[in-house]
Amino acid sequence: MGRRGAVLVLLLLAAPARAQEDWTALLPEAARELRGCLLAERDGAMVLDLKRDGSLYEALVRRADGSFTRCRIAPGDAAPRTRLPLEGEAPPPGPRAFALERGCADARRIDAPDGAPLGWLSYPDCR
What we know:
Helices cover 26% and strands 30% of the residues. The protein has two helices and seven strands, in the order H-H-E-E-E-E-E-E-E.
């Protein structure tokens, strides 16, 4: 395998990690809505993945008891439209998590445009 082949293999191996990180790019626009998803659960819940599905955000939420749910919420809404138990086995957590509580000293605060704190970006095992 030549240099070009080696570069292609490295890009393919890195693609899943980049895809998992991409959801955090939606945080500035979706953090208020994600608060609704997390407030609908008990303390200690965190978002592990987020995607835009048409006109709704769909978040993978890990509850404090370790179970998972999918929360679907419309932009501008304060309460989820639907909360569905996750069917089958949950995907392994990625390197990032969004929560309402800080949990770790190295968590990064996510603020609204007016400076109000909306939540914290950290990692799934942050306690």
